[in-house]
Amino acid sequence: MIKTLILRTVAAREEEAAPLFWATAYGFCILFSYYVLRAVRDEISAADRGNLQYLWTAVFLVMLVIVPLYSWVSSRWQRGVFVPLVNRFFIANLVFFYAALLALPEGARPWIDRVFYVWASVFALFVVTVFWGLMVDCFRNEQGKRLFGFIAVGSSLGAIAGSALTAILAQELPPFSLLLLACVPLEAACWCARVLHRRFGGNADPARPENRPLAGGTWTGIATVFRSPYLLGIAGYIVLMTYASTVLYFLQADLVRAAIADRAARTALFAQIDLWVNACTIVLQVFIAARIIRWVGVGMTLAVLPIVSAAGFLWLGTYPQLAVLIAMQVTYRALRYGLAKPTREVLFTVLGREEKYKSKAFLDAAIYRGGDLASGWIFTGLKALGMSVGAIAIAAAPAAVLWAALAFWLGRRQEKAAASAQRHIEQGASP
Predict the structure, then answer these.
(1) Which parts of 10-140 fold into alpha helices (H)?
(2) Residue 103: partners with Cβ closer than 8 Å, 6 or more residues away
(3) Rounded CA gap, 124 and 39, in Å?
(4) Phi/psi of residue 184, each to 5°?
C-alpha cells in the first residue's frame, strides 16, 4: 500500500520506492527528535534572552570544533558506521543531560541550560547535514531532482508530529523526560541509515567506495571549500540566505511586539504562522518542487526564493505593517523549506564523496551558523544607527538581488558538472 501511494504521488520508478520510503522515514525521525527538543531549547532562550547573542557565538565556535572532528571520524569508518555513530553520539549526550539535570543542584541549572541551548542548536544543524549528506551520496543527480522534494516531506511531517506530541506531553511527563523521549526517533534514524547504506552499498562489496572510509584527512573538507569556486558559491548562497532569514526574524519580533501587547495572543499568532508555513511547505514538497526543477532547471528554482525575498523586502519597507510581515514570513519560509532546500541539496549530487560529507558539513553547519551570527550583529548595528524597520527592510533588498544572481550562476555550474559526469559515464560504458 505504501509503495503504491509513493508511485502515485512521486515521479519515482518502481525500484526507487523502497529506498525513497527509508530516506523519507529517516528524515521524519530526525526532525521528530529535534522538534521534541526545540520547545525545551526555546524556553531556555526566553528565560535567558539577555545572553542570546553570546549563546549564538558559542554555537558557532563549537561548530568549528565539531566539523573537523566529524571529518576525522568519516575518514576512519565507512558511511554505514559513521552516520549511525553521529546519531548515537547525540543520544549519549541526551542521556548525559538528563542525568545532570536530575543529579546536580538547582544552582547549576542556568549553566546546564546554556550548555544545552548550544548543544541543541548544534544538533539541529548537524544531524540534518549528515542526513542530507547520505541522501546526496545515495541518489544520483537525476534522481535528486525528482525525489528530494518528497524526501523533504518526511522532515516536515516529523516536525509537525514532534511539535504536536511535545505540546500534549510536556505537562504530563516527569521533568526532563522529553530528553529521553527524543532518543527513540534518533535510534530509529540509525536503523534507517543502515538500511539505506546496505541498499546502495552493492551487497557490502569492499571494492566499492561506499563501503570504504572517505578519502582525505581531518581538514581537507574545509580546505576544499576555499579552493573551489563552486563550493564558495554555495557558501555565499547560504550566507545571503541566513542574512535574509535573520533580518526577517528580527523585523517580525519588532512588528509583532509593537502591534500585539498580550503574550498569549503573540504566541497564538506565531502558532498560526507555523501552521500555514508547514501546510504550504508540504504542498510544495509533494506536488511542486520536482516539477519546477524539471521545467525551469536548478538555477531558476534556486532563484525563486531570493527574487521573492527582494520583492517582499521592498513591499515591507514601503508598508511596514504586521499583515505584510505575516504574508512575507509565510511565503518566505514555505519557499525556503519547500522549494529552495531540496533544490540546494541537488547542488551536491555532482560532487565527490568527500565534498558530499566533509565540505557539506562545514558549509551547512559552520558557515550557516556563522552567517546567522554575523547577520544578527549587522541587524543590531543597523538598529543602533537609528534605522527604522522599513529602512532595514529596504536595505536588505539589494542583498537579495545579489543572492538571486548567485543562484543563477550556481545553477549553470551544476548543470555543466552534471553533463560532464554523464558524458564520463557514457564513455566508460562504451565498448
Answers:
(1) 17-47, 52-74, 79-103, 109-138
(2) none
(3) 12
(4) -65, -55
Residues 6+ apart with CB under 8 A from 58: 114, 118
Other C-beta atoms lying within 10 Å of the C-beta of residue 33: 28
Full set of structural domains in the chain with CATH: 10-418 (1.20.1250.20)
From the number of C-beta atoms within 10 Å of its C-beta (0-12, 13-18, 19+), residue 114 rates as: middle
**Measuring CA to CA, which residue among 1, 122, 145 is closest to residue 368?**
122
pLDDT in tens, the chain (431 residues): 677 777 777 777 888 888 999 999 999 999 999 888 877 766 654 454 456 677 778 888 998 899 999 999 999 898 989 999 999 999 999 999 999 888 888 788 778 888 888 898 889 888 999 999 999 999 989 999 999 998 999 999 998 888 888 878 877 877 678 889 999 999 999 999 999 998 886 556 666 777 788 887 778 889 999 999 999 999 999 999 999 999 998 898 888 888 888 766 776 787 788 878 888 999 999 889 989 998 999 999 999 999 999 999 999 999 999 999 999 999 999 999 999 999 999 999 999 988 999 999 999 988 998 998 899 889 889 989 999 989 999 999 999 999 999 999 999 999 999 988 777 666 654 44
Closest C-alpha to 346, from 409, 301, 305, 284: 301
Residue 241: partners with Cβ closer than 8 Å, 6 or more residues away: 305, 306, 336, 340, 371, 403
pTM of this structure: 0.86
Contact in structure between 346 and 140 (CB atoms under 8 Å)? no
* CA 327-244-151 angle, 5° bins: 75
- Secondary-structure percent of the chain, ordered helix, strand, coil, rounded to 5: 85, 0, 15
**Which of 137, 78, 156, 212 minimizes the C-alpha distance to 334?**
156
Decide: residue 179, CB within 10 A, 0-12 exposed, 13-18 middle, 19+ buried. Answer: buried
Q: Which of 289, 302, 68, 92 is nearest to 187 (CA)?
A: 92
The dihedral formed by the CA atoms of 16, 21, 27 and 31, expressed in degrees to the nearest 10: 160
